[in-house]
Amino acid sequence: MTEFVCLVCGRSLPHGDLQTCPSCGPAGILDVRYDYDAAARTLTRDALVARPANHWRYRELLPIRPDVVVPPLHVGWTPVHEAPRLAAWAGVARLFLKDDGRNPTASFKDRASSLGVLKALEFGYDTIACASTGNAASSLAGLAASVGLRAMIFVPARAPEPKVTQLLVFGATVFRVKGTYEDAFDLCRASCERFHWYNRNSGTNPFLVEGKKTVAFEVCEQLGFRAPDRVFVPVGDGCIMSGTYKGFAEFARLGFTEKVPTLVGVQAEGLSPVKSAFERGCEMEPCRGRTCADSIAVGHPRNWRKALKGVRASGGLMMSVSDDEILAAIPELARATGVFG
Ligand SMILES: *Cc1c(COP(=O)(O)O)cnc(C)c1O
Ligand SMILES: [Zn+2]
User: Fold this and answer.
1) Which listed residue, 41, 193, 240, 252, has the most CB atoms within 10 A of its CB?
2) Ligand 1 atom having least distance to the Cα of 135
3) What's 218's domain CATH number?
4) Residues whose beta carbon lies within 6 Å of some atom of ligand 1
5) Phi-psi region of 200 (alpha: psi -120 to 50; beta: other; left: phi over 0)
6) Residue 320 burial (CB count, 10 A)
7) Predicted TM-score of the model (pTM)
């Protein structure tokens, strides 16, 4: 890692314990930059053959020290399943599912949390916190337990009971906030400043996107160092989309693949501020709304700028689906593929 660059003012900042750009405030999302020539010297196809089947195999492109001890849980290298019956149904030649439910706490968020806990340890914290509608919280609670950090979790009042139970089982301290995810987010940020806790908030912490981008590296490797034509990504805060674009772009830059796929971001119709910003071509306006898809129910996404940069650079687009379509898709996917999403 060489530096941070602010996506709003373009300023370069040295590597350190920063969440957002000091001049631009919370809107100043930072992007982590690397020395790609140095990375390319050791990150080669031959080297990858001998590396462990988890996402630390891409350590040259992660913001970690070469000698760092990584968490003992198995994060990443989740299966890519070919889904021929779903492909026939969708009218495409080939279709694949990346099953990130197979991570240690059963979601994609483990890619980000695994980076979050390492950075908290590196910066000398004993406590890490996040605000979450569910999966980020379970993930942080599990990963924190794996390295012996204390976890403080802020959940909105309507957080599903089973997910709260999971947090308590992992030993996290849970604050059920009377309000929305946005209220929980603000309270988490204020508490981190006040009590010196490390903030693992997907929207703003610059290191989490770096963990999420490993999904793109894996997809390329698992398809024989080829990038797919099109990739569909669910969008809440926009962190998965930002990471997915960055991963595909970096693999193309290192010459592992020939192109960056067209990225399609998917939001829930009831709450789609990133899609609206994409279509209007202007700043994102926070909104209120409802969807049954609690993991992407984000009215004030923090990483929309980085996400839309990726969607646009890939020649992609944003779309939305109704709650009826989301609910119908769960059994359709399960029955056509055997994957229960
Ligand atoms: C967090 C989450 C998302 C959205 O990711 P963002 O980085 O917030 O855009 C989508 N699906 C599931 C299951 C999630 O847990
Ligand atoms: Zn800035």
Assistant:
1) 240
2) 15
3) 3.40.50.1100
4) 107-109, 135, 202, 234-241, 295-296
5) beta
6) 18
7) 0.95
